[in-house]
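Researcher: Checking consistency across runs. Here is BCCT family transporter again:
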Amino acid sequence: MKSIRHIVFWPPFLLLLGAVILSLTNREAFINLTTQANNWVIANLGWVFSVSGLLMVIACVAVYFSPLGNVKIGGPQAKPLLNFKNWFAITLTTTIASGLTFWGIVEPVYHVSAPPTSLGIEPNSPQAAIFAMSTMYLHWTITPYAIYCVPIIVFAFTYYNMRKPYSLASTLAPVLGSKLNGKGGQILDAVCLYTLALGMAASMGTSTLSLAGGMNSLFGIKSTPLVWGIITIVATAIFIASASSGLTKGIRILSSINVKAFYAIAIFLFIAGPTSYVLNLGTESFGNYLTHFFEKSLFTGGASGDTWPQGWTTFYWANWFSWAAITALFLGRIAYGYTVKKVILVNFVLPAIFGGIWMTIFGGTSIHMQMNGGTLSKIMDSNGTEAVLYAVFEALPFAKIIIPFYLFIVFLSFVSGADANTAAMGGISSAGISPESPEPKLWIKVVWGITVSFISWSMISFAKIDGIKMLSNLGGVPALLLGLGILYALFKIAKNPAKYDRTSDIDRKVNNQEADETKAV
């Protein structure tokens, strides 16, 4: 047990274990407890999530053009751990890729058939189509990746350039100095570990439903809790095996295959789907998104009592925040050797562009089908949310080939994201993690992988999509508070990077030492 940080590991593990036991022994109490907590979050903190998401966007743009943008992570002499292509592939598949595969087709159907009542948009109307697509741009492009990018920059800089420990407490070092050294920092890490576990469980839930829907479409196997359990067990075994192989093996190979599969399926759907409609709707909706960016970003429904933003935008921002801080431990670690400007390019700009293209193609296709007969919302009502995914592909050419291929993509996205985050969870709860010794013990990864998987299965079994949303909202609250602290830390670093960057001093000492040794010879 010397290999774990006890204060970090045990509190979140026992809380999650307690949730698992409660879900098995008293399902009603479990659902009531999580529902009440979730209702409080969305009713009282939706506006905080909205404002915070917007601030993250502003911060990324500002830092890109600031002097901090030219600072290299690890110092002037640092050499990248990964080439640019592999770096981008890992970043893309580690963050919200599993969400793209599920919500890219499903979410627009919700928005077209049930837009916010306060906006007075008629369901299944042209205005509803534009609203749906522009909302997809809001939820899946600039803002979510900004929420991810800010902690990545700060952790990478504090870990490599400030030489701080492998801990989320390190991200607050520019603000609090040494105050979080010791138990205070470990408590913070424990809280963040708990939030990631919930966020990861939510993401796993969407992937499980996606895979179950595909099994039903291909083989007629009904989507049930038993099937979800089998899928979860198989996926968990594979991502734990991948995580055990380390950064340069499992995750690099998986992400490379995954991103190529993304490109292939997107190109196919663009060609085989309603191409002209997708391009026209995407163009018009993107204009709507840009025109109303601030309005959409800060829409809370408070004036009219509309709960739509709480069920969607707040859910997403909570989900991204719950993942962002601790995911930064992994993505910040692989940013070594690149400038902050390139970190922003790979973690914010390029993924946002990819997300926009993906949503244009997949969202546009599902909107087109919904607008021509309303069949997708009927399928959703009768067969479940997961059935919508494959109903779209069944209407396209080569469905018998494309559906298995899409299942493969969903599975890879599931495994890639879980792989990276299991490694991050293992790392933050382990003792002795450093740039020289970056991998946690295998058994720690196994424990977290199994625990999170069971939480995910419990929530989708008892509450389906609502369960996924509850997990995201509950995990997002403490992560939001940390995110705001990290944002302030980024502001302080950007104001005077040289004040915090120790790499130049270390490089100077190394050069002086080498010079002295040369003279001695």
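Researcher: Does this match what you'd expect to see?
Model: One thing to look at in this run: The chain has 22 helices and no strands.
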